[in-house]
Each structure stands twice: as structure tokens, then as C-alpha cells.
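job 3f2a | input accepted
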Amino acid sequence: PCITIFCYCHTPDDRKALSGVPDRSSPPCNCSAADWKYRHAGLMALSAIGEGCHQQMEGILNEIVNFVLLFLQDPGTLLPLLTHGLLFQHPRVRYAACNAVGQMATDFAPGFQKKFHEKVIAALLQTMEDQGNQRVQAHAAAALINFTEDCPKSLLIPYLDSLVKHLHSIMVLKLQELIQKGTKLVLEQVVTSIASVADTAEENFVPYYDLFMPSLKHIVENAVQKELRLLRGKTIECISLIGLAVGKEKDASDVMQLLLKTQTDFSDMEDDDPQISYMISAWARMCKILGKEFQQYLPVVMGPLMKTASIKPEVALLDTQDMENMSDDDGWEFVNLGDQQSFGIKTAGLEEKSTACQMLVCYAKELKEGFVEYTEQVVKLMCIEVMGDGCLNNEHFEELGGILKAKLEEHFKNQELRQVKRQDEDYDEHVEESLQDEDDNDVYILTKVSDILHSIFSSYKEKVLPWFEQLLPLIVNLICPHRPWPDRQWGLCIFDDVIEHCSPASFKYAEYFLRPMLQYVCDSSPEVRQAAAYGLGVMAQYGGDNYRPFCTEALPLLVRVIQSADAKTKENINATENCISAVGKMMKFKPDCVNVEEVLPHWLSWLPLHEDKEEAVQTFNYLCDLIESNHPIVLGPNNTNLPKIFSIIAEGEMHEAIKHDDPCAKRLANVVRQVQTSGGLWAECIAQLSPEQQAAIQELLNSA
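job 3f2a | predicted structure (704 res):
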């Protein structure tokens, strides 16, 4: 399909001249300037298929990227390359090329960034200089945002000076255009690009703080018109991200005073004002920078925050005619309920409400006792997990149990009703589409049920099990073999929490979940496999002696999943990494249940983990345990395995598997430093690494 799409982009002679791709039959295509639509369609199609055709495209990604980047270039630069209709690129073709680059940067991250950083950054920066086409310029900036968001820090740093130079010059120019002409499209994207670069570069952005702040402050102080709300919100985000990146190395009070000025007009903002969510997130970032010093600002922050967190969405049950009278522009979204009725919800403010609730959690975690006076207000909204044991009384539990039970019963009833509708004589693809929407809504509610139970179990541990028993038959029903995979996934997640937080008392309920958990680790759904594998891992880590025989039984099932041919594909990698982590937990916490000497070499060959960050930390910590104890299988005779260990650590660093402020990163750096003092062994280990891996090791040593 990818080659077919190229046929829309080029004439046969172009394809042959550019890459040697064999000519394929394609729809008639005139690649003159008048037929730019074919090239535009081909590039937009490439943007759309990346996620679904990930495996098929990966093998020819280098060829695809080279093709796409040609369409970014100015007409003059194409002259030496092409003579068959691509000389005069239509701006919409260049826009589509930016779109394709940005989407591939997301779909194929971080491998895309590692392979193509040099050519992509250069091409996007060049395209951002196109002053004649603002939409192209803005979309190039948007593609740069996608690229930098998933770019490993070590890869971005060498380009930092060039990025800063381009972004600053464009920002200054576009700020002048805003003042003189009122145009803001490019400036909005450039401001977000600056924020993204600062977020990735972290402390390396400190030298550029004074370069950007005057212009950013000017925007916040002067962009007060309604049509500039989004620009102002993005600028607030940018300032706070720069503040978070540079930390206390610059005076955080300066940023705080600027944000305090913007806070004064908060009460006058409409519910759907985009500034609200940016403002709330900015406060949370400043809280992370200042720590307990942020407590002094709570009286100013909490009022607007609680107001936003308390937003209640407007809902309505409408017939078809009423729904047609309400446009999507009014902020309403609808779900078809059948029988010419629809459920409508006004979504204005919901994103801001979600952001506010997340920020309340952030404040509670960062400030702890400094947040106590707001506890009662917050408990009425949320934060069971953060507030901990004792925040809910018996009345609260009784009410909560009734709500959760009703939601689960409704979930099963709705599924039955949908199956009945599928047997109706009026059933067709349009009905199915509506039923799928209903199912998605039900699954979303199920995820929230799981989230609430996670908070309850993590806070109250085994004390809450008697209360949980009223829900037990419904949760057991979720993991029955005939249930859809989302039911089984979330049912397993709930039992995972029971094992993790309520063991060894959890074994009382093992008859309900153990057999399904063992069975589902080999399920066809990767989401179900992941939930089952995680459960087996915490069973080894937290379960008591009663779980030992099941660890032995689970091991070959986990190995089968890990060694399957498609284990590392994008859709399977998270499930596979949870299986690898579970094997590590069995060796660490239940070593008498597995043959460690036999399994350990295989486990080492499966490392590192990098997609599931939490499990990556678990496995790297166990690896450090083994190295620090001089385990002979891990180190090998005469330390012959150390180059392999260095490779594992380097790959983990390149994939940003562990944050540098995590204690595990320091342990890994200490392992490297110990070898560094050994002269010849250090040289041998480094010599077997690629240049990228060597740079990653150096980055770890510099940062951890």
C-alpha cells in the first residue's frame, strides 16, 4: 500500500530517478502544478496509515522519509533533483509533507528520532523560515513539536543552539506581525515549539532563559483580547515549562509573580476559555519547582481551582428534531440511544475540570501536611488515594459501594441490550456504529470503576476486602471467557490490585481469579495479556507462600509469550515487557519456585525494557541487585558479560526508560563508574558499543 501511495506522489520517471522503486500500475497522474491534489492525497494518506501499518512501513521507513522530505523543500532546491513536475511545489503539498513528518514522528517514536534526527530537524527548520506561506510555516512548527516531544534528550542537545536561534528569530518576527497585522497562527505554534524544546532539554535550556523570557512576558501582559486567548494560554504553558526545565537555577519568584498577575482575571473567564487549563497546569509545574515554598500561594490558587474542579456538565435527553436544532458549535456532543432519541452532554469545561482534578492530586502529593486545611473540600470531589486511609467513613463507603454496584450492573445490562439490537431486522452498519459508540462509553465508565477501586485498595489494603465482597460476583463476571476483551482486561486489573495491595489475605479469593489469570497470559488480546502478566508479577512480589505453586506453573506460559515471533511488535510490546518483568519478579521474590540459573541468561537476553517505564525500573533495579552482588551468571567468567550489560544500560538510557532523578539511574551510573576505574575492561566495554550507545553512557554519567 505504501508503494501505491507513492504512485500518487510521483510520475514513473520520478520514482525511477529518485529511488529505483519498480514502477507499479497506478491511477493516471499528471504531476504538473495543476495536479498538486494527487501529491497532497498521497502524503495525507501516508500520514493516516502509519499507526495501522506500523509493521509494514517500518521496513521501508528510510525510503518513505526521503520521499516525504523532498516535498518540504523550496522550489529552488528541487531544481537539481527533479525535472518531472515537482519543481513548483504547491503550498498545500508542503503542508501535507509537514503533516506526514509530524505524524511519523509520533507513530514511529523514538526510533524515528534516532534514525532521522539530522535530516528531519534541518528540513523542518528550513521550512519554518518560509515567510510566504504561514500555514506551511505553522505546520512545520507543529511537526517539530511532535518530533521533540518523543526525542531522547541526548539526541536533541547537539541541535539546541540551532533550534534556539531559529525559534527565537521567528518568534520575534511573528510577534511584530501580531502587533502590526494581528496575525497569530505561526506564533502560537512557535511558542509551543519553544516549550517542547525546553521540556526535553531540561537543565540544558538554562542559558537561553533570558533570551526568550522578555518576549514571552510581553505576550502574556498584552495579549488580553478574546481572540488571543489561545495564544496567551500557550505562552503561559511555555513560561511554566521553561521554569520547570531550568528549575531553581533561575529565580522562580519572577515567573510566579507573572502568573499571579494573570490569576487576578481568572474569575471573569468563561468555562470554555482555553487559558484555564493552561493556567492550572502552570501552577502545578511551579508547585513542583518550589515544593513546600508553594504553600504561600495556595490561598490564591485554590479558589479558582476548586471552582473549575466542581464544574458540572449540562446533559439532556433529546429527540432527533431537538438535536438537529443544536449545533456542534454550541459545544454539545451526542450519543444515539435508538428510538430517535439521543443523549447529549455539553463538553465545555470538561477538559478544564479534568485538569483541575489532576492538579489537586499534584498539590496534595507535593505539599502533604501543607495541604491539610483543604482536605475536606477535596475529599468531596476526589483524591481517595492521595488522602489515604481514613478519608472515607462508613457512610461514604456505603454510598460508594451502591454507586459502583449500579454502574457494573448497568454495564452488563447495556451489553445484553446491544446484542438484542444486533439481532433486530433493522440492524445495519449505521446501527452498529451507534452501538460501538455506546460500547466505548460503557468501557470508559468501566475504566473509572477500576481507577476508583485501585485508589481504595492502595489506601485501605486488606481492611476493605469485606466491603469489596458486595462487588465480587460482578468483577468475577467481567473475567469470564465469553466476555469482550475490555471486560476481561479491566476485571483482571481489579484483581491485580487485590493481589498487590491486599496480600497475603488476597488468596481467599484466588479460586475466582487465579485460573483465568494463568489462562489469559496467553490470550489473543495484548491488553488482556498485559493485565494477566502484571498480576502474575505482583503475585510473586507480594503474594504469600500459598501462591508459590502458581509461580512455578506460570513461568513457562510467560516464556512462551516472550519468545513468540511477534512479541516485540508495537501492539504486543507492552504485554511482552510485563511478562519479562514478571519473570524477573519470580526470580527475585520467589527464587525457590524457578530454576534461576537456567532462566537468568534468557532473562538477560530479553533486556532492556523501555516501553513500560514502571516495569523498566523494576527490572533495572533487579539487574543492579545482581551486579552489586557479583552474581556469576550475570557477570560471566572473568566479567565477559559486562559489554552486554553496558549495551543494556545504554539502550535503556537511549529510550529514556528511567528518569535521571530516579535512584535506579544513580545505581546504574555507579555500575558504569566502577568499571570505568578498571582501565582495560572499560576500554573493552566501550569499544563494543555503537557511537549512539557510547553517547548514552556518557549522558547517564553526566546526569545521574
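job 3f2a | The mean pLDDT is 85.
job 3f2a | closed
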